[in-house]
Design a protein that fits this description.
Elements: E1 3-11, E2 14-22, H1 25-35, E3 40-46, H2 49-54
Antiparallel strand pairs: 1-2, 1-3
Length: 65
């Protein structure tokens, strides 16, 4: 069963977050790390509908290298 997780990270001294679909939080963090090896993972949490509507996340491909 896959859930939506929000992964907060820092890339090139800029904080950002993305939503990832994964089985658990560790898998979500590893998916982000595979796409952006220089990213520092700050947190992983289940997706929050209300908060994520106010501050929408980006697609992982849109993040700077």
């Amino acid at each position: 069963m896959k859930l939506q997780y929000t992964v907060g990270m820092t890339v090139n001294r800029k904080a950002d977050h993305v939503n990832i679909e994964a089985e658990d939080a560790l898998m979500a963090a590893l998916k982000v790390k595979l796409e952006k090896p220089t990213a520092r993972i700050n947190y992983v949490r289940p997706k929050n509908r209300r908060g994520d509507r106010r501050h929408p996340s980006h697609d992982i491909a849109e993040l700077p290298e």
